[in-house]
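FAQ
Q: What does a multi-component entry look like?
A: The components come first, one per line:
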Amino acid sequence: MIELLSQEKCISCNQCVNVCPTNVFEKVVDGIPVIARQSDCQTCFMCELYCPVDALYVAPDSEASLSVSEEELESSGLLGGYREKVGWGPGRTPVSKHEYMYQLAVRTSF
Amino acid sequence: MSAQQWNDLVLDTDVLVIGGGPAGTWAALTAAGNGAQVVLVDKGYCGSSGATAPSGTGVWYVKPDEKLREEAKGSRYTLGGHLAESRWMDQVLDRTYENMNKLAAWGYPFPLDDSGSPYKRGLQGPEYMKLMRKLVQKAGVKILDHSPAVELLADEHGVGGATGVRLQAGGTWTVRAGAVIIATGGCAFLSKALGTNVLTGDGYLFAAEAGAELSGMEFSNAYAISPTFSSVTKTAYYRYASFYYEDGTIVEGAGSTRGRSVIARNLLQGRQVYARLDQAPEDIHHLLRVGQTNFFLPFDRLGINPFTDKFPVTLRLEGTVRGTGGIHVIDENCSTIVPGLYAAGDAATREFICGGFTGGGSHNAAWAMSSGSFAGGGAANYVKKLGERNETRRLRGLSSTTLTHRKTGVPEALTASRTQERIEAVKDEVTPYDRNLFRTDEGLAQSLGRLDDLWQDIRGSVSTRDAEGVKARETAAMAATARWMYRTAQERTETRGMHKREDYPKMDASQRYRLVTGGLDDIRVRKVEVAEPIAALKEGAH
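Then the predicted structure of the entire assembly, as tokens:
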């Protein structure tokens, strides 16, 4: 579930508040949004994709909350790692048109 | 609707679409394209809500070549217990082909094949739903995000709108509409299977409260393989898995399709099962990693290499999301028996194209985009015929549980903790493999006894038109869905499609019919003949 909303990176665009399908975040007047309903997080990772500054981190465990260190996530490339793989963000190519998609289909029946 | 507050929103429109996933967005787009004014409401965010948005999916996209089409139609026909119909499969294959070509023209970034043409056999959820939202907006559809519906509105002529809650804006919404399309998805009982926690069977409840029926609710016991530590329920790659016990010995017979029962029986006995994708040829590892980016996400974050490391797996309930049961539709416009009410996507039955079994993915994706289009076109035409009559309707709410605006003075109003207890009570009946996956007459009867009591309890309670009340209505929908599932499952005394009866392990040729279910307090199940005789379709590759 959602474990990190980086105070340093967040630019208060409130995109996460908009896109979260289970309404986990809450806007704050004159501030950055907060994770208001963590237990409602369904671990779908969509907020990470829409965050323009990679300020969010969703841990894979959907049941239990665990503490994470922003520093470690940053150094291991996990912050924003999913968005990069999906090919969203300036200068990136969407993974949906990756040549491997077709090559995989040729090699398998996917 | 009398106690209106300053931030209550009231809108009039031609077509209201409830649900903003693939089916809902195609419905909205098609209705708007047919000249209708459209409002689309989503309980979350149209573009990220539902099972498709966070996933990648294959699509049942087959060129209109006779041989290819025959193979495609045969692909799940036998698995589905011969309940699909050729006429419907043709219609869905045609519309899916058309819609996928439209997506290419509208700018969906497909990969290119060897000849440089777009290769259209799959869609990446985030990309697909981002584009659908954009297209819907461009078509002039008004989208209300974070606006779950709580009940339909109707008069003696049929359904005429819905009301709901504005979770972020505050207050309520009321949309009066000539026709309503339910595209709320299936029901996965808050199992956290990827993207499914918004899918709580709300649309089934709304439809049943309006007098509509459901079909195929016995085909509601889909479970997906997933790592124990993750919500990611993408199962396609498990075809490359070997399954192991703790001590490293192989679990005989375990597999991702027919061998899922073996995994379940081990888990039931308390024996943890582990998987490793060691049958994937090394030279396609890099292709697989790109093919389903999100499959690898939990592994990457935990430093596990699923091709070389064993990891513990479980089976996560996907209910009717990957099942095939849903609202009964009676014609090629996806109409229900209630005038003005339409159903599309996973909210509707998918038996017409895959009978009693679907592995999810390609067929469901095809059904969502085609049935959405059918319903959108049908609803727009219906509204045209309705004409001026729509102006003077006296609509009333259809909720079978009492809804109120304010908590004050309502001592019976549900508390969050009481709702949570009820959610757990429903889950206790539908999650265990020895109740839902492996069904017996005894088990079904016991569960139904408890679920009927729970339903009566819910029926007698009052919920508010706010976030808490929305959860209470979701709970009512899940309880009702569980009862429809098990009541229908009792009726089918055989094993067919995904419906497995331990006490009737074989398919019974004399039970090749649909089971159509209706009612709230008293549930009735009737048999409906499959419109076509068993077809001589060969199992093909598609």
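Q: Is there any commentary attached?
A: Sometimes. For this entry: The first strand of chain B starts at residue 9 and ends at 18.
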